[in-house]
Each structure stands twice: as structure tokens, then as C-alpha cells.
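Q: Hi! First time doing this. I have a protein sequence and I read that you can turn it into a structure. Is that right? Here it is:
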Amino acid sequence: MGTENFLKWDIETLSKAFANKTLSPVDVMEKLLMNIEKDNEQSNTYITVLKEEARSAAKQAELEIGQGHIKSIFHGVPIAVKDMIDTKDSRTTMGSQIFKDRIPDEDATVVTKLKEAGAIIIGKTNTHEFAYGASGDRSYFGPPVNPFNDRKMAGGSSSGSGTALANNLCYAALGTDTGGSVRIPASYMGIVGMKPSFGRVSKYGVFPLAWTLDHVGPMTRNVKDNALLLKLLVGQDKQDPFTLPSEAEDFTRMLNAGIEGTRIGVLELSDFVADEVRKEFEQAIQHFQQLGATIHVIKVEEYDKLLAAFRTTMQAEAYAVHAENINNYPDGWDEEVKNRIVSGEMVTAKAYIEAQLIKGQMTQNYINILKDVDVVISPTVPIVAADVNERIVKVNGKEYPIGIVLNHYTGPLNLTGLPALSLPIGVSESGLPIGLQIIGRPLSEATIYRFASALESVLNNC
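A: Yes, that's right. Below is the predicted 3D structure, encoded as C-alpha cells:
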């Protein structure tokens, strides 16, 4: 294999090239840094590029790999980290003017895990301010630019992690997901994004948006890379009381198992699924059938109540996180983000408690549905990427606030804590990527990857 297109390689191919000395971590890093320097002023992908740290780490990785001391498949691999995730001695801003010079004094647990595996943190990616926006277009540093159409939003809030992968400016990235913030940009950037089961991955050192909804998840260009990265990230952390006890797990173990004889639940679609999204989704269903799965249309009873409980929970918890900041820093906020945060002050204790009761009921409803099917699928996002700063969208002749559209299918999975992955299934007539969401039982990420891999294989051969 030639090395001319190495920035597009999967992680396994890159790792083998490092081990065989046909490609150098230093050469890869220099090429990436050069491309980032050329691209970033226009694309706003990275808030901070860790040039000298990354160069030094690449030299060290080359030395260690050359001596046969290979720490993991990620040794020497450049990875981007969303700027909600602390990196020791390197600024973590949350996309905010208020914290534009904030320098953490320790790494988040997930960053520690990356470094221990030999991965190289190349930079901190842009984010919707404080991760409070599914559009991804409100950052003090300017919104990341959608490489498929620069007038369109990149999706949020992990917008920079999405554009970094779409532009081949890293090999994998970390995002955070409170209502779809890994999966929405994954859908809009034509990449793979996983929101693991709640408690799978430590959030220690991650700036919170809503404690019971926040997740950290891997973002990659293909399914196998995603499964490999999740394996690295999972594990109980005594510094995060939400993490679950878990043993090491190989999430790639079923990637080649096929899905013949399996059962797939198809979530009944809402009225505001755009025709072009519906078309690609229905084509994906046909692919699953051709692979041997049976399809079963399902309806989640009282879905509107579930959505309302998710939004109530987010409002209340986001205000609780930021109430002190609102008082201490009256200025320096994006107005839309600040208004959204302040609205949480109006959520009553009664409303919040009722939302938690609904959470328990609806989580059990999903689990009951998943007793009869192996996974449930839906579109990731009901519409293709809207214009930057567009807040009212027209879908099939009707107008809707964009906020209730973007996370319609993703947000409920943050409330229930179930694992869910987005993978690309096609593009619109205008060339904008479209994603499909696969939902699984608690702790069933390997099963989700199995179905995603099967569909990815078919789509790659179309």
C-alpha cells in the first residue's frame, strides 16, 4: 500500500505502518499540523492546536515504537479532544469568552487513558458555547464551518470534532453528548459517533452541562475505529460516582458476525422527517432486510412526554451548573446560550421530580421493546443541515423551531441512558450527509457495532 493518502487511513492501517516503519508518527504529525495551519483560520475547527506538545509526543512515540515498546493500537495516533474536556496545562475554554484563558491543572480521565495508550492529543476542538446547542453554531471563537456547504451548520455541540474528522485533520476525536451532541455532528459530517451507555465512560474532568444526561463518546470515520476507541475509554472511575463497574471488553468482537436472523425495531417516524432523510432511511431498512434481518415497526408510547422530560431535566440541571457563573459573570455570554441557561431557573422542583419519574417509566418501556428486538433504528436527525443561525426550519411545508427538531430522536436516549450510535447512510440531493441511529439495550455497544458494521459494509460496496 502506498502512503500518499495516509491521512485518510483507518487506525489499524496507520498503527501497522508505524510498527512496520513504513510511515513515521513524526511525518504524520507534521503533515497534519501543516494542514491544520492552512485550514483552521477559515474552518474554526480547532480552538487550540497543541503544536509543540504534539511534535514532542510524536518523536517520543516514534522512538518507543521503533524499540518495540508499542503501548496500544493508538500509539502515535493523533486524536482531537473537544474543548469541554480538560487537558493539563492546555487551555480548555468550553467555547466561551468567559473561560477563554482557562488552564486546567490536570487531565480529564479520558485524556489520561488516551495518553497512557500512547495516543497524541493534537488539539482542542471547537464547541457550541458550554455545549448548550445542537446546532453547533454559537462559539466565542466562531462556528466551525461545514465542509460540505459553508452556509450550513456543522451540528453540535461537538461541532469541531466532527469537522476535524470530515476534513481529515485527526484520526479520531472525543465529543460530549447531552442531547445528541456526538450523534448530530456525526450525522451532519458523514462520520460515526457513539453515545455509550450512561456510566460506561468517566466524565471526571469534563465540564458539565447536565449531570444526569452528559456522556463522553468516540467520533471516528468508520465503525471499527469507533469500537476500538470505546474499548480504550470505558471503565469505572472512583473520581466519577456515575461510572459503572466493568471489565475490559472487546467491542470489535461481533463486527463480522453478520445479522442474519436478527430482529430490528424501526421507530415510527414523526411528521417532521424531511423527505430526503426518509428516503435514505427507508433504503437503509432495505439493506438490513437483504442482510437477513426482519423489520418490526414500533411506537414508543407517550414519546412527547419523554421529550418533555428530557428537556425539563436539561433546563434544570444546566441552570444548576451555571447559576454561579451567571451571577459572577453577567457579561461575556452568547445571548442565546445565556437565555437558554437562565430559563432553567423557572423549572420547579415538582416539574423536575416528575421528569425523573417519567425517565424511569420510559427507560423501562424502551427496555421492554428491546426484549423483542435486537436493536431499534431511527434517523439520527430528522432534517439535513440547516443554514448557520437558522432557528425556524420548514419541513414538508410546516415550520418548526429548530431546537425541537434537531434532538427529536437523540435527546431521549440521554434521558434513558441507553447506548446509541450514528453512522452515515447517504447524502441529500445537495450533497449533505444523512445519518441513521442505532439504539441498543443497556451495555450492548458491541451489538450496536455489529449492526453498524453490517450496514457499513453494504454501503461501502454500493
